[in-house]
Design goal:
By secondary structure, this protein is of the alpha/beta class. The protein is built from 22 helices and 14 strands. A seven-stranded parallel β-sheet has the order 8-9-10-11-12-13-14. α1 packs across α5, α1 crosses α7 and α8 packs across α9. The chain is globular, with a radius of gyration of 25 Å.
């Protein structure tokens, strides 16, 4: 059982207890405990009772229930609460932005017991009749419900990867010696994967797939579908040895992309991907970019010029215990150095982010002093002094200009007042971009994949402003964000805008999120020369110096 699943169980327990009017101190305890467990990098299932109890915010009761959950698959107290709560109510509690108090009102006053019933009630304007609800709240809830329902049976690529690896291992044990290749959305590294698809050499029948108990097999005309680990649908295709490469090409690309290439190539299988691109008179298009026919409308970068993980020289946009990170500045810096990177950019939260222990000016100078000492000790590795400065509602940056100018770099990000119309949201970002201290525009739309749509902005205006003021755009590599979306990379490259692939790391291990950012950047064809943290230490320092000249 993963840490995320364990934390989610306590989050649900807290929500159900609050829903049923239990002791608010107990509710808060379970909710805080869920947050504490979620931050732990080490697998909770491998920890002893004493180690669990030692986690701040956990204690004896939660550690006991954690062990109960790991050993039995359930928590008795949680099962008791679930037994007296309709399944649809439990589902509503899991929707971001609709808390227990609202759910209780909807349930008891309006008799709504499922997300679909809630959507219907919104469409019928029934929510405005409930205590504490109004037209604006109803509209907000309707958007959340619609987004939630659209997101069912969809998975983040980063979460799917270990599932795909486990299934592939099963296939290789069951069908030794056969070629196996992932195709479809997973092969294209799509940020959200709806369906896992795999191609096997040689004909396959359900009888061949001795995968063990718990697999629901369904045979189609040219494939077999199965459910894996209850939540994942996997479609299995097959092809003869001489047609394997051609079948892999056809199944990997989006249908529009494949059709566009085949029309140009006029080549019957067998063929390899390289052969069909050559026959079509097209440069080789990496699998990540085979989403639509759009690549053919622009000048495609050479495959060797597109950024790879090995090109990343430094790790920018990171947090430490100075704000809301899990590890100290020294721990973060030494870990980054030990992974082979040449530099590290710390960017803890600014003063306005009270919820994240944002830095007062006094604490900024305290951090500066520690960075100076560490740089002297760790040279030639270098820590760059950065800050994630909140973009305030009018577009101004947190802190006065004389303090902002003392940072080596500033990541300007929006974290509050997210409900603006497109014109105001765009103007807000452009005002921040125009500030002479802004070096990187952080996660520009604030989206959370499968949880929250980004706020509306005019992407072209924002990118144009970045080009004019030589501000880099962040591709936030947290798998939940991947923001700004890769589809805007080609336009930004036309304008000469640099991109920073940043992990937004809040712990040592989460610096490795940069890998997911690189995979996503490749979907947009980002070339290494326009990747800010692919610059070596000296060139990155000179880029910053030139901006301040």
């Amino acid at each position: 059982m993963s840490n995320k699943e364990i934390a989610a169980a306590f989050q649900l327990l807290a929500a159900l207890l609050e829903l049923h009017g239990d002791n608010p101190f107990k509710v808060r305890s379970y909710r805080n405990g869920a947050g504490a467990l979620k931050k732990i990098d080490r697998p909770l299932a491998e920890m002893s009772r004493e180690e669990l109890e030692a986690i701040p915010g956990v204690g004896k009761a939660i550690s006991t229930k954690t062990i109960e959950l790991v050993q039995t698959g359930q928590i008795r107290r949680l099962e008791e609460q679930k037994a007296k709560t309709p399944p649809g109510i439990q589902e509503m509690l899991m929707i971001r932005g609709i808390g227990p108090k609202k759910v209780l009102t909807l349930w008891k006053e309006l008799g709504i017991e499922s997300p679909v019933e809630l959507l219907y009630a919104c469409n019928e304007n029934r929510l405005i009749e409930a205590t504490g609800f109004g037209l604006k709240t109803q509209q907000d809830i309707r958007q959340k419900i619609e987004y939630y329902l659209q997101s069912q049976d969809k998975h983040l690529w980063a979460r799917v990867e270990p599932v795909a690896e486990a299934f592939e291992q099963l296939l290789r044990e069951t069908l030794p010696g056969r070629r196996i290749a992932w195709v479809g959305e997973y092969a294209r590294k799509c940020p959200i994967v709806n369906l896992l698809e795999v191609l096997i050499e040689g004909e396959v029948t359900a009888d061949d797939l001795q995968l063990g108990n718990g697999f629901e097999m369904t045979a189609g005309e040219d494939h077999i579908s199965c459910r894996f680990q209850e939540s994942y649908t996997i479609r299995i295709y097959w092809a003869t040895a001489d047609h394997f490469d051609a079948r892999q090409f056809v199944l990997t690309g989006d249908a529009r992309f494949v059709e566009a290439v085949l029309q140009k190539a006029d080549l019957a299988p067998p063929f390899s991907a390289e052969e069909i691109f050559a026959r079509a008179g097209l440069p080789y298009v990496i699998p990540e970019m085979r989403e639509s026919a759009e690549p053919f409308a622009m000048e495609l970068p050479a495959a060797d010029d597109i950024v790879e993980l090995k090109d990343i020289r430094g790790i920018l946009h990171n947090h430490s215990t100075y704000s809301d990170g899990l590890h100290s500045l020294r721990e973060m810096a030494e870990y980054v150095r030990d992974q082979g990177y040449a530099y590290f950019g710390i960017s803890d939260h600014s003063r306005t982010a009270v919820y994240a222990n944002g830095l007062s000016p006094e604490r900024v100078y305290e951090q500066f002093a520690e960075i100076d000492a560490l740089n002297a000790e760790l040279a030639p590795f270098r820590i760059f002094k950065g800050i994630e400065s909140d973009i305030l509602s009018d577009g101004s940056l947190d802190y006065e200009d004389d303090l902002l100018s003392q940072f080596d770099f500033v990541v300007a990000s929006v974290h509050s007042v997210l409900k603006m119309d497109q014109e105001r949201a765009t103007r807000r970002l452009i005002t921040a971009i125009e500030h002479p201290c802004t070096d990187i525009l952080g996660h520009p739309t604030g989206r959370l994949l499968l949880a929250r749509e980004g706020y509306p902005i005019d992407h072209k205006q924002v990118i144009d402003a970045c080009a004019e003021h030589n501000v880099a755009i962040e591709l936030n590599a947290n798998p939940l964000r991947l923001d700004m979306d890769y589809s805007w990379i080609p336009y930004a490259m036309e304008k000469g805008v640099m991109w920073a692939i940043n992990p937004d790391a809040h712990s040592r291990e989460s610096i490795h999120n940069v890998r997911f950012g690189v995979l996503t950047a490749r979907k947009g064809g980002l070339v290494t020369t326009l990747c800010l943290n692919a610059l070596d230490r000296g060139d990155f320092g000179r880029w910053l110096a030139n901006r301040r000249a």
